[in-house]
Input
Amino acid sequence: MIDVQDCPQSATVLGLPVHLLTHYPDWLLNQLQQRRGVHVVTLNAEMAMQAEQNDALADVIRQAELVIPDGSGVVLYLRWLKKQVVKRCPGIELAETLLRQAAQVNPNWSVFFYGAAPGVSQAAASALQQQIPQLNVAGAVHGFLSPAEQHDLKQTLQRRQPAIILVGLGVPRQELWIAENRYLCPQSVWIGVGGSFDIWAGTKTRAPSWLRNHHLEWVYRLYQEPWRWRRMLALPKFAWRALTFEGS
Output
């Protein structure tokens, strides 16, 4: 558990917490050094809208030790409606930075990759090891496991106790899975990283920086995956809720 005095300052987005830090990886490194378990939630507009319909997801987000402003919608909400000085912190960049710094601080800290399609998590781990040669990989397992394989995965996590566990199962599955299973490694940093494994593995690409910097990464995602258009409807719904939410 995180000491109350060590809890970062937070604001709220549609009733959900967002923690405000100047450098999230530094805070997480401190938690690793103090052997304090952390669940990191990467909040965006789509997740916030899902939480309005999914009480279990909303509860997990509220109980997480660290909720970062991953999406542009969340950042603009905090800037325009809450008058907060906040910078977007994409989950993929947070994870990459944390892995680089953790590998330098303590080579014995290991990372475990769980999620994505067969072969992708392994490819992601290999690609990151090429970029971070000192990275200690405890394992990489895809996200389509049978009940028996799930049991084996949990035993592996409990036995190896990786310092950082990256879970790429998509929202809300990854958040609910972490909340249910983090007792297996109570001193670990658990991060739901969505589709980051595909980016690291090279099966998909991120939007160009100029699109990301202008809060238009969703356009590139829609271009890459046009079937996501129904999910993208969460963005205008989020904007409307932001203007009408009683707690704003």
